[in-house]
Amino acid sequence: MGRRERKKAATRQALADAALRLFLDRGFDQVSVRDIAEAADVSTTTVFKHFPSKEALLFDLDSDREAALIAAVRDRPEGMSVPRALCEHTLRMHSDGTDDPEMARFVELTESTPGLREYGRRMLMRHEAALAAAIAETTGVPADDPGCAALAHFALETVGFARGRADARRSIEAAFALLEHGWPAAGQR
Amino acid sequence: MGRRERKKAATRQALADAALRLFLDRGFDQVSVRDIAEAADVSTTTVFKHFPSKEALLFDLDSDREAALIAAVRDRPEGMSVPRALCEHTLRMHSDGTDDPEMARFVELTESTPGLREYGRRMLMRHEAALAAAIAETTGVPADDPGCAALAHFALETVGFARGRADARRSIEAAFALLEHGWPAAGQR
DNA sequence: TTGAAAAGTTGAGTCGTTGCACTTTTTTAG
DNA sequence: CTAAAAAAGTGCAACGACTCAACTTTTCAA
User: Fold this and answer.
1) Are A36 and A93 in the same domain?
2) Which of A46, A74, B14, B166 has CA atoms 20 to 30 A from the CA of A27?
3) How many other β-carbons are positioned within 10 Å of the β-carbon of residue A180?
């Protein structure tokens, strides 16, 4: 890697670090892009050469998420259903956000700012097609099967559903119970 | 109704009309709020006294939607399941958008602009709580039952899912089939 | 060494949106 | 009925996110 790319990476990292620090300190809306640029000692325009938007400064670590999602489906234990595997994966991701206090503050920031909620949701939904393809593959149906796409969409949407509900874990489980067993018929209630 | 309110209503209508005309003509992003204000012969500030955002200029008619949604659940034929009723209602709403050519252009506009898609989705999702309550009522469970909330959320989310897919009707039906019967067990495939 | 491409930086500008001040209308008090 | 005060409408100027067109610097091959 040449000197140039190293410097570019350093600037990028400095921007992401400064942004995270300022956001956690003052809140997303109380920090302007100018502030971040100044803290990293570059001009505001330069910020947008490295990141497509103000929100993107926070979601710099987006990789691996898709891979973990696909793996949860593909490498699930023998005999476990796809919705069940996705449920457990979602619960696992969710508890990751409440263990580490550093991470907890980050999660709290993203969930309390409407703009960041939307952005996070869109980031997550970009994996819909890949997840649908993985589901189709393990169940042996055509890759564009609408049922697989629907399951993928709803499974990803579940975190958005649980957000803001009183008992998040119970909401996640209820959502996946619906996806796995369907709406209970009139007699079974 | 006094003269003042009449004038206010007239200005509001003029703004909504001018906005719709310009948006259909040039596209949402190619029209600035200043253009709309000028077309209605007011200042840009006045626009935001009547509408909370640029997007709101298009979604002026949002009422009745929630009422129709609730009615579809509450007044469904004897013996019809809740997901089935919601499926038919969703399909009915969807075909409304493709019949009338005027409406078709409107739908095409809202679906082709990312900002408008998000806004429309949020408008729709505001009905989640009311729909969940209606579902809970007809099935005789506590109003805050997470299963009902999940069904409400996913049913509303279905239009967002079908959007942008090749065969929208088939996608809607597949989504509701999943919600009604659940993910088919390994043997049934 | 040189010269052109790639990348970084900048200042000026656009667009959505909001605070502050000003004008007009409606309501209230004398 | 009139004056004052409250309320509502309107516009100018400004802020913050983001883009564009130019300019400067860095890199690297010939």
Assistant:
1) no
2) A46
3) 18
Structural domain of residue A114, as residue ranges? Answer: 65-188
The model carries a pTM of: 0.90
In one-letter notation, the amino acid at residue B73 is V
What span, in angstroms and rounded, lies between the C-alpha atoms of B54 and B27? Answer: 13
What single DSSP character describes residue A185? P
Say if A150 is an interface residue toward chain B (CB within 8 Å): yes
B142 and B53 in a common domain: no
Q: Is the CB of B49 under 7 A from strand D?
A: yes
In tens digits, what is the pLDDT along chain A, a chain of 189 residues?
Answer: 567 778 888 889 999 999 999 999 999 999 999 999 999 999 899 999 999 999 999 987 766 889 999 999 999 999 999 999 999 999 999 988 788 888 889 888 998 999 999 999 999 999 999 999 999 999 999 999 999 999 999 999 999 999 979 999 999 999 999 999 999 987 666
Do residues B64 and B116 touch, judged by C-beta distance below 8 A?
no
CA distance B189 to B186: 6
Final residue of a structural domain among A34, A57, A80: A57
CA A37 – C1' C3 distance (Å)? Answer: 33
Based on its alpha-carbon atoms, the radius of gyration of chain A, rounded to whole angstroms, reads 20
Is the CB of B52 within 7 Å of strand C?
yes
Residues of B in contact with A80 (CB under 8 A): none
Whole-angstrom Cα distance, residue A133 to residue A148? 8
